[in-house]
Amino acid sequence: MIEKGVLIVLSGPSGVGKGTVRKELFSAENTAYEYSVSMTTRLPREGEVDGKDYFFKTREEFEALIERDKLLEYAEYVGNYYGTPVDYVRETLDNGKDVFLEIEVEGAKQVREKFPEGLFIFLAPPSLSELETRLVTRGTESDDVIRTRVEAARRELSMMNLYDYVVENDHVEHACERINAIVMAEHLKRERVEARYKKMLEVE
Amino acid sequence: MIEKGVLIVLSGPSGVGKGTVRKELFSAENTAYEYSVSMTTRLPREGEVDGKDYFFKTREEFEALIERDKLLEYAEYVGNYYGTPVDYVRETLDNGKDVFLEIEVEGAKQVREKFPEGLFIFLAPPSLSELETRLVTRGTESDDVIRTRVEAARRELSMMNLYDYVVENDHVEHACERINAIVMAEHLKRERVEARYKKMLEVE
C-alpha cells in the first residue's frame, strides 16, 4: 500500500540561486528527495558520470525520445538538448519517493502542462521585499533606480502565475526550511491521507 | 501594508489530545499564534481570570451575542454555553496575526460555514495507522477486535471531510512540528504572496 511520491518542481528567474538551494537541500543527511538526473546531448566533461551527473545521449537518441513523448520537459541551449526523462520520474513517484526537479521557468511551464499535480515552488529574489521596504521608506534612491526595480518586480511577478508556492531566497537555509515545510504540508493534505485510509478500509 | 493572519482551527475526535498539542504549541517561546479565548456562562473556578482563561458572561449576555451573530461557533454542555467570540478573531486576523482555535468537531463545522478560508487541521489518533499495520500483519488480533477498530476508523474517516489537513498525533512533538509546517506553507501560498506584491506595485 505505497503512497505515491510528490513531484517537487523548484524554479524561478535565472540568477536567483536555484542550484545553491538545491545543493543545500541535498547536502542534508536525511534528505528524503530523489534528485531527477537530466538528460543531455552535450559531451561528458572530465569526471562526469553517466546516470549520475547526466544521462548522456546522442542527438538521434534524444530526438527519438522527444518523438515518443518520453521527456517531461526539454530545451535546446547552445546547440545541445537538455531534458527530464519522464519514465524515471514516474517510476520513482510510484515507488513512493518524492522527486525533486530544479529547472528553468520555461521547463517548469512544460512540466505543469504534463504533470499538473506536481508541487510548483517559485524561488523569488529578495529584491521584491527589499523593493517593498524601499517604496515605503524612500528618499535614498533616485526615481530612475526605483522605476527599473519596479519593472523587474513586475516581470518576476508575472512569472509566478503557475506556481503553488513562493519562497524568497533571502538566506539559503531559510529557503530550504520553507521548502521542506511545504513538502511536509503536501504530504498531510486531507485528500492524500484520506485516500490512503480509504484504501486500507476497502481492503478489509 | 499588513497581510491578514491565518485562522488555524485544530479539531478531532474527543480524547485525541487536542488540548495537549495546543499547550505544547503555546509553550514554545517563539510561538507566533494568538490563542482565541473562549466565552462561557459557567462560573469562574478558583484562580481563573476573566479574559485569560475564559470571557465569563451571564446567560442573558451570551444569548444576546448569539442573537447578534457575534459567535463564530457555540454549543451548550451540561447547562452552560461555550463559544468563540467573532470580533476578537476578526480584529486579531486584521492585525496580521494568526489566530489559533482548538475546538470540538461540531464547533469546527460551524466555523467552516462562517469562515471557509480558515486552515482546518484534523488531529487523528494513531489508531488509524496502527490499524493499517495490524491489517497487513494480522494473526495477533481476534476478528472481533479488528472489526471494532475498523468501525472506529470509519467514523473518524467520515469526520475528516471538511478539513484541509490531517495530522496524526503519534507524538505530541511530531504533531506540533507538522502543524507548524502547515501554517508556514499556508503563508507561502502563491495567492497570498502575489496579492501582497501586487498591492505594493499598485501603490507605486
The name CATH uses for the topology of the domain at 7-36 and 97-203 in chain A is Rossmann fold
Counted by DSSP, the helix tally of chain A is 8
CATH architecture assignment name of the domain at 7-36 and 97-203 in chain A: 3-Layer(aba) Sandwich
Q: Which two protein chains have the largest interface (Cβ within 8 Å of the partner's Cβ), and how many residues from each?
A: A-B, 39 and 39 residues
| Rg over alpha carbons of chain A | 20 Å
**SS elements, strand count of chain A:** 9
Largest sheet of chain A: 5 strands, parallel
State the fourth-level CATH superfamily of the domain at 7-36 and 97-203 in chain A. Answer: P-loop containing nucleotide triphosphate hydrolases
Global outline of chain A: globular
Overall mean pLDDT of chain A stands at: 89
Work out the strand percent of chain A. 15-25%
Give the CATH level 1 class of the domain at 7-36 and 97-203 in chain A.
Alpha Beta
Segments of chain A where pLDDT lies below 50 for 5+ residues? none
Which secondary-structure class do the elements of chain A indicate?
alpha/beta
Helix content percent band of chain A: 40-55%
Major beta sheet, strand line-up of chain A: 2-7-1-8-9
Element-level helix/strand string of chain A: EHEEEHEEHEHEHHEHH
